[in-house]
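Changelog note: in this version the structure field was regenerated for every chain. One regenerated record is shown below for reference.
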Amino acid sequence: MRLVKDIEIRPGMKVSELLDQFEESGGFAAKYLGSALRILEAMVKDRECTRFLSFVGAPISTGLRGALAEAVKLGFFDVIITTCGALDHDIARALGNYYIGDFWMDDERLREQGYHRVGSVVIPLSSYGPAIEKFVQELLEEAYERGLNEFGTFELCKLIGERLKDEHSVLYWAAKREVKVFVPGIMDGAVGTQLWIFQQRRRDFRINPFKDASELADLVFESKKSGALIIGGGISKHHTLWWNQFREGLDYAIYVTTACEYDGSLSGAPVREAISWGKIKPEAMKVTVYGEATIIIPLLFAALLDKIQ
């Protein structure tokens, strides 16, 4: 048994020095955040490891988008699996502005005034649907005129990233760093709707999920090891775990979630449950961190930078 150690705070200390102490503090959520840093550092430094980043759409509406983009820019991850909402917000924020709001705002009034709300973020209607529509339709038309009429989602995401001119964009840096971005639920969002609308005019246009499957199969089966930082739950979490079960599971796994496991949901399922499915190896370095991602992830990335610089 290890002794509980008191956290020592001093002027000028690094974020990594604080989080290192978390693991030795014994409790409560801090212990798991400290473990997450140790595992993330090992995963990023393991050159045999293919590193997955999984996240849902909502965080991209917040400033966490910039931290995720910086992590991609710095080469922390090789593969991204996300949702259509993440594409929506990444495009919309590259083209327009989002604003700081509050969870307790009057949603009926917001609708009357032409705003959407994502938690404590307020989005002008003009910055979202119309802006995404114009961007996607122009992108697809240009690609179609060049003879490109069938895409996997990883190819679509690369096209989007190459067109965005925003260094805070996740897709921009993914395209620059040749990080493949997969969106298994591509139809569930504004970009997905625009794909369908485009297909009504260009009937031979296709999104081909089998191209994604083949690309993911190659990535997984050619990997000596694999690891994942999984933010939130839903389809992006499941898709990351699902593909890694075909290589007997992840070697590194960090979950960051606020969901509860007692409703049987995948979003709340801790790392130990994935072992029963062969999605995470029993001997893997693994941890579930219960906490809100816009707090947890910037702390993790800042501490990791301390470690690797």
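Spot check on this record: The mean pLDDT is 97. The domain at 47-95+126-308 is CATH 3.40.910.10 (Deoxyhypusine Synthase).
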